[in-house]
Design a protein that fits this description.
By secondary structure, the chain is mostly helical. The chain is built from 20 helices and 3 strands.
Length: 475
């Protein structure tokens, strides 16, 4: 019997680009008012605490909506979930256009909450998109592109915010953002399937319970339309049989149960029961949450220290734009250094050192002006790049340590921890000095570095994919 082929499609890049645009918009809308804090206070007659509250709408909405969204992704599929997220972002951005006074400020909050409601999907789906559409050698890079562009969205908010110096310009910006979000929503409606007709990897086939039969005499070839094609061998068939036997022992049935609250709760608790998965979840979730919140309130951290709003915005812009450099970590993991533990240790260590340097420089301790400027301009991009670079490696580590649990479950759980940490940080920020807020980031990074040392590496998903004989055709 001949094994069915596993195939790649060129359209996978369109799917990824559309999702990336949704991620960019969602993060840009979230940080709009934090990046233009002074102008926002002038426009609505509010103080900095209210601006921080708008930023807190993101993690608050996530904590409330996460259980439903995690169920929805499994029950309704990738397409429905992503299109719904794009619709929420578009609706939230459009609502804000109609409120430019203190009396209608509640509508700003409503718009931010709608945008924030898309957060659980936006943060949970990247590894699911890459696993459904991309081969093993592109998977971490695709996850990096789908997650790290969140930094590009935040950077866009700071970049556009640099040109917003009065209320009229703020209003124009809101119109432009609303129109672009609607355009991306339309693009997602036009084409965004849950999965390709044929899976790209053996782990994707196993997850979807596609029956794959090995044939030792099978040769890999290219089909008539020139798309890439994969045929498995006997070793891959044995690994698939092992995973199916393991699932049969736990579920006592050949087909998987539908995603329900009880199964989701059981899988989530099971991750905390595994030492390695638990360490990856807690260290990655807490550090990304604290780092994201720090970037979100960086203008309010620096302005009390004597920085002007444009200068503080420039620092925030440097941090978030440098975050796109985190894509490099995904490429490194795919092509050069397939060791998620080693990469996490490097990222956490550099982040701790960079934030420590930033804290010392802005703490009031005497540092020569030339050195002070240089340290800020070096440490800030490093914080941004490492903070964003955590995501693709973190998602990959979770996918491996929790396999065969669906990627969106582990990504959703770490995102829940992320948003809880982000909310706590923003909430206590009103009671902390800038020095204390900076120290909190430094201390968190140092603790996470130490805890990561005790993680044991496992690659069951990658081992399954590597067992197949792979031939790449012309795309």
């Amino acid at each position: 019997m001949t094994a069915p082929t596993l195939q790649l499609y060129k359209r996978r890049w369109y799917v990824l680009v559309v999702f990336m645009l949704i991620v960019i918009n969602q993060n840009n809308i979230w940080l709009t008012y934090g990046a233009t804090s002074t102008t926002t206070q002038e426009a609505y007659g509010i103080n900095a605490n209210w601006v921080n509250a708008l930023g807190a709408a993101g993690p608050v909405a996530f904590l409330i909506i996460y259980p439903f969204s995690s169920w929805a992704i499994g029950a309704m599929g990738l397409r429905v979930s992503v299109v719904a997220a794009a619709a929420l972002v578009a609706a939230g951005s459009v609502i804000r256009v109609f409120c430019m006074s203190y009396d209608t400020f509640w509508m700003v909050g409503a718009g931010q909450l709608l945008n924030a409601a898309a957060g659980p999907i936006v943060m949970s789906v990247p590894p699911l998109v890459s696993a459904a559409w991309f081969p093993a050698e592109e998977r971490t890079l695709a996850t990096a592109l789908g997650s790290v562009v969140s930094a590009l969205g935040c950077g866009l908010a700071f970049l556009v915010g640099l040109g917003v110096t009065n209320v009229h310009q703020l209003h124009i910006m809101l119109y432009a953002e609303g129109g672009f979000c609607v355009l991306v929503f339309i693009m997602s409606c036009i084409y965004f399937p849950s999965a390709p007709p044929t899976p790209p990897t053996l782990s994707a086939a196993e997850r979807n319970h596609v029956v794959v039969v090995a044939d030792a005499k099978s040769n890999t070839n290219t089909n008539n339309n020139g798309a890439d094609k994969y045929v498995i061998n006997d070793e891959a068939s044995a690994l698939l049989a092992k995973h199916h036997h393991h699932q049969h022992q736990q579920q006592q049935q050949q087909s998987p149960p539908k995603r329900d609250g009880r199964l989701l709760f059981k899988q989530s608790i099971g991750m905390f029961a595994q030492r390695d998965a638990c360490l990856v979840l807690l260290t990655g979730g807490i550090l990304t949450g604290v780092n994201g919140a720090w970037v979100g309130v960086i203008v309010n951290i620096l302005v009390p220290l004597g920085y002007s709003q444009p200068s503080a915005q420039l620092v925030g812009l440097m941090s978030t734009i440098a975050g796109t450099g985190g894509i490099l970590f995904g490429k490194i993991h795919d092509s050069y250094y397939k060791n998620y533990k080693g990469l996490l240790l490097i990222i956490y260590g550099v982040l701790a050192l960079a934030s420590f340097s930033f804290t010392i420089t802005t703490s009031g301790i005497y540092v020569p002006h030339t050195w002070s400027v240089a340290i800020v301009f070096v440490s800030t991009p490093l914080i941004g790049m490492c903070g964003a670079g955590i995501y693709p490696i973190l998602y990959e580590a979770l996918a491996e340590t929790t396999f065969p649990v669906s990627e969106d479950v582990s990504a959703g759980l770490v995102s829940l921890i992320n948003n809880l940490a982000c909310f706590v940080y923003i909430f206590v920020a009103d009671y902390l000095t800038p020095l204390m807020m900076n120290c909190l980031l430094t201390g968190t990074a140092a603790v996470c570095f130490f805890c990561t040392i005790f993680i044991r590496k496992r690659y069951p998903r990658s081992n399954l994919d590597a067992a197949g004989a792979i031939t790449t055709g012309t795309v």
